[in-house]
Amino acid sequence: MESQNNKIKDKSKSFVHLGKFKKILLYIILGIFGFVALYPLIWMIYTSFKSNNDISISAFALPRKLHFENYLNAWETAKIGVYFFNSAFVSIISIIITILIGSSAAFILSKFEFKLRKFIYTLFIIGMLIPLQSVLVPLFIQMRALHLLDTEWSLILTYTAFGLPVTIFVLESFMRAFPDSIIEAAIMDGSSIPRVFFNIIIPMSRPAIATITILNFLNNWKEFSFALIFITSDIKKTLPLGLYNFLGAYTSDYAGLMAALVISSIPVVIMYLVLQEQIINGMTAGAVKG
Amino acid sequence: MDLIRKNKKYIIIGLLPALLFYLILVIYPIGRSFYYGFFDWNGLGDPNFIGLKNFTEILTDPVFFLSLKNTMFIVVASVFGQLPIGLIIAVILSKKMKGARFFRSAFFMPMIMSTVVVALLWSTILNSQVGIINTLLNNFGLQKFAHDWLGDPKYAMFTVSGVIIWQFVGFYMIIFLAALQNIPEEIMEAASIDGAGEVKKLFLITLPMMWDTIMAAVVLCIAGSMRSFDLVFVMTQGGPAHATEIMATYMYNKTFSIYRYGYGSAVSLTICLISLTFIIASRVIMRKKIEA
Fold first, then answer.
1. From the list B15, B98, B279, which residue is nearest A108 (CB)?
2. Which site among B120, B166, B169, B185 would you substitute to test the A interface, given the most A Cβ atoms closer than 10 Å to its Cβ?
3. Does the ipTM exceed 0.85?
4. CATH fold of A78-249, please?
């Protein structure tokens, strides 16, 4: 009886009991979808090492010789290097401000009592529902009024503000679960509230802060719409905007374009390979709960 | 302790920075744009109050209706493209076959790429001279199926929707995979003992048990695809001849290329209302279905 039970369990659990034919069929379906998902990315990488001449002779063929100069051209001539550092600067500064002010707001909202607590929390959470395109014109008018158009600060301030809803949503629910007794004990020992925040709450929130940092970095690094309407000077453009203009300026330099696309994807792909589970969970969990 | 947790000083110091950022850069601009929607304003001179004229102009502009129709096209294509494909892949991967982890990572990969990168990569792939799609069709003697995918108004919307599906399938695969893993194995065992085959189990047990998740995914997918802008803007800018004009590109083209900020504000507001109506309506309808 025992062994029979185990057998059935094994059967229902796995792939093993499917017939050979069915197994092969599933692999074929998966293989086709997998090919469609990955081949464009693989093509992008090897095309970036071809010469434009080779590309026009055969779009499929692997590079006959590795043309690293495509990368050099993209980085220097097409200013991808400049855009890269602009993107890094804007993304990182916005994340630092978002985490700093977002975590202190989350702490107050999760552990303090005051009249408008619920209202303010809801106000922040609504931000996750606002369709981005409905704020482009208002933000443009606002940035012009603040005389910040065509500066890095227009992007830093915007990314910070729009990063707050998800940051507060994640951190507030994380901090809410901390037992009050920890804070009480620290206060008894004579710690001030700021000390409790920096020495206890922040270190305890590290996993949630890590998730939020990754999510905000991905969002900021990829962001295009705000950059498109705020930034006009070439030297202040971020990567997505710079890439967009690549098309106009070097219309037929496909090798250079592919090299530029690879360069701009390297940071996120490395992050993805290292922190895959956090990224997948962070991007999907928030969506399902919200 | 209680006194500390009601201490106004700390509450204000802790909350104010985030609140200021948020009020100045999110809430106030939206409110102000609501106001400008009733004005004729080129952004420089004094705004001129014109009442509902901007809104009547939007609602009588055939291009706006075309953009609304195209946005709906993307929504429908996304719901009927991303979700079924994501579900098929998730069901296969949930069989715990060899290499499942690799495939899972691979399908999610396009999600982390910048939309601009995806748009430019696919523009090149679909390019009629160096693109691999047409090269492939030509090599197989299928010349008559090779088209100018983005330049021909007949195909442009299908092409754009296809790329959107390619980018987001992995996202729904992950959501479905999580739901599939939550189905208790005992139920599947019992069904196997009763002699149910794989297909029967899929339609009679698996799908009904993850119905809530599927409905949630439909709502997410509608909300997500109403938001698309970057991809369409980079690939076609709404062209050729408005063939791929969606609400967001319409707003961009009306505001930033011809400096009509009053009109642009009114369009923003209209988009916001239409999107929210759709999102809320889809939530209500789906919830009813779950209860029924």
1. B15
2. B120
3. yes
4. MetI-like fold (1.10.3720)
